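Lab notebook, bench 4. The sequencing result for the construct came back, and we need a structural model before the next group meeting so we can plan mutations. Quick request posted to the team channel:

Model the 3D structure of this chain.
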Amino acid sequence: MERLAHNARRDAYGSKINRMHSPVLAYGVPWISILLASLTPMLPIIALAPIIPPLGYLFLLAWRMARPEVMPMWAGLPLGLFNDLFSGQPLGSSILLFSVSMVALEMVELRFPWRSFWQDWLTAAVFIPIYLSFSALFSGAEFGLERLTLLIPQVLLSVIAFPIVAKIISLFDRLRLTRVRRIG
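Done. Here's the predicted structure in token form:
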């Protein structure tokens, strides 16, 4: 009885003893956030040209750069499939592009093992135009110089939005690593 009262008193002061990370949060938050970001094409936004950044892809890049151990290399396949189902792209385009991006990010990680905000932003600024160009190519539309200029606003907005997405990912990462009280 005295021990139970002692534990209750320690917890009232915010003790971190007997607390652990929730496995559901630790493994689920990255995947769920990418899946929810892939649903943005379902928003009722009408535009004459593509302008909305591919948030599913941006979230994938941000999670992979922030926490490489959370996103395995094979994650591009299921996440790309989900993105294809809701983006309107032909089935397999996001699967291929997400998977190739995961492999390319792994090679960048091996070549430059140190981390910096500017390096991540530069890497995203290289990957995003490539992703959008190949997405436009895979969409089946005629791809000429005049169509390429239609992608410029989307590319610029996506590159500018990447630091905001990275900040959102850092907040989700903090949520992911919160400790919950172990029962028992």
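Residues 4-11 have pLDDT under 50 and may be disordered.
Will bring this to the meeting.
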